[in-house]
Amino acid sequence: MSFIITFLAALFVFGAVIAIHEFGHFAVAKLCGVQVNEFSIGMGPALWHNIYHGTQYSLRLLPVGGYVALEGEESPESQQAETLRDTPEPPLTGEVAARQPERFGKPLNEAAVWQRMLVMAAGAFMNFVLGFVVLVLLISARNEPITSRVIYKINEGALCGQTGLEAGDKVLAVNGRRCFVANDMIYELVRAEQYRADFTVLRDGKTVELPDVQFDTWVDDSGETHMSLGFTVYGIQKTPLNVLKEAGNSVLYYGRIIYTSLADLVRGRESINDLSGPVGIVTAIGQAASYGWQDLLELLALITINVGILNLLPFPALDGGKIVFLLIEGITGYAVPEKIQGSLTVAAFALLFGLMIFATYNDILRLITGAI
């Protein structure tokens, strides 16, 4: 039963993240008058397809991806869709010949540079929208009020109170990083060294710098040391406006976690051995599903924002890399030669594929050793 729950939960999460991402590309391409030959959820053989207004909508066998095939785009899916346009496809349900999409728009390479940039960025944008909507639902469904960043009370004798913090302080930043939500404080304090951090607070209407605020610690039965916050914060009434603000700030919080984790990986603060691949992600989804629908939706929000951030990185194989190529074209008036784009993209795909294999190996090793 747990396998079935994990499978269905993973199908739901991956399906939602992929579908909304591809819908972003699809919708903006349509708005910009670009011909969309196919909008597909899943990869591999088609289980179902239908043609409407010049676009073939497909549901395919393997729920491991999806794509939008645009006229004039240099991708295998787009080129295949263009090739099949004038070649009747074997029918799915006994028709004499399957209908092929007609052209209702222009090729992508004939669209203005700014339009192509919008098409490329739209997928990631919709991932952020999905994350925002999910977080709105989660915050609205919780019984407790929204957690603020305003200190309500300092515990008696707490070290943080003796080294700078006061009741009524609104935490603006920890160690120079702006705090959007209460979780930002926790995240930065967990990363802090020697159980101390620099705070920026709003006190009596003025911004006050509090260097080297220290925190108490305690030791558990296994001998591990933990930080004790030593203060509590106010709750915020859950009005529609406050829910929307908290959801928007939470998107920024998740996005910065992803960015910070990548930066830590590059700087060597985090080990590459900590990377997780598809196996680790599916395992995490299964665990979240076993805890309840709210944990599953919270993981969905994290994953979809993660996909949005990663896709905007200026890497040739990703949407962000394509945007860089288009930016160069917009500034210079000349497109980056397709041979150079193709070579960089192939090299980038090889690197990403290698990282995925390495991360999957780590996942399997952790499963065998019981680390996850």
TrEMBL record:
Gene3D superfamilies: 2.30.42.10
Topology class, membrane: Multi-pass membrane protein
Molecular-function GO term, any one: metalloendopeptidase activity
Cofactor: Zn(2+)
Cellular component, GO, one term: membrane
SUPFAM superfamilies assigned to the protein according to its UniProt record, in alphabetical order: PDZ domain-like
Domain Peptidase M50: 10-354
Matches recorded under CDD domains: S2P-M50_PDZ_RseP-like
InterPro entries, alphabetized: PDZ_sf, Pept_M50_Zn, Peptidase_M50
Cell compartments where the protein resides: Membrane
Protein name: RIP metalloprotease RseP
UniProt source species: Faecalibacterium prausnitzii
Organism placement in taxonomy: Bacteria, Bacillati, Bacillota, Clostridia, Eubacteriales
